[in-house]
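Annex B. Sample input.
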Amino acid sequence: MSVELNHRISGQGEPLILLHGLFGSLENLGGVARRLEDGWQIHGLDQRNHGSSPHTDEMTYPAMASDVVAYMDAQGIDKAHLLGHSMGGKVAMQVALSYPERVLGIIVADISPVSYQPRHDAILEGMKSLDLRGVKSRTEADARLAEYVETPGVRQFLLKNLERIPKDDIEQDDLLFRWRLNLPVIDASYSNLSAAPEGDGPYDGAVLFIKGADSAYIQTKHQDTTQTLFPNAELKIIEGTGHWLHAEKADTFATLCRQFLEQ
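Annex B, continued. Sample output.
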């Protein structure tokens, strides 16, 4: 069953739906939205169990694709371009495979339509193990999370999911913060999120894969699977970037998106 997704709309023109990655929210693609809203109507979505969207026990790519289509129905959108990063890229691919008649084209940022070995076990363990009792600021939370997650930038990204509990909802005097995302379900569903999008394909529409040159998420060995599912796919590579290519070289990323969308 689909859920009603939190969203943010900006700009005017053909609809372009933005889908963030794991542990993210619609804010993560805000820079892309700002760079493209002069030519397209941007629909930034919080995916289920993320951001301000509802929490639900089911978390699979078909379920998340149904959320996107339900959102399109609610907004009166017949067809749209989709742009997804990482997990969001797999959701975009799932929508294209399951509902091709609703898709004008998709942009997939640094992910392939394949299953991956677990890459986030340490992060999940760190977030689950983080004791939030007595934490009075994000700085304190960062110091505690550093015991589990070494990279400061990764901690900063994860801690965007930490929210202060409203006064009326506080049940323990020493517990002032909570995770905004549905950590237990994300943890339990991690194998689903590591899996490939479902569907035999092919999706015959236009597809652009954008790879960060320093990232290993898109590899040559994925090419056959990609071509089978998306025979009209093209690949662009942004040098000097990793998995966070849309943030590391935002202008270059947006230019590639613009060129594709204007075809």
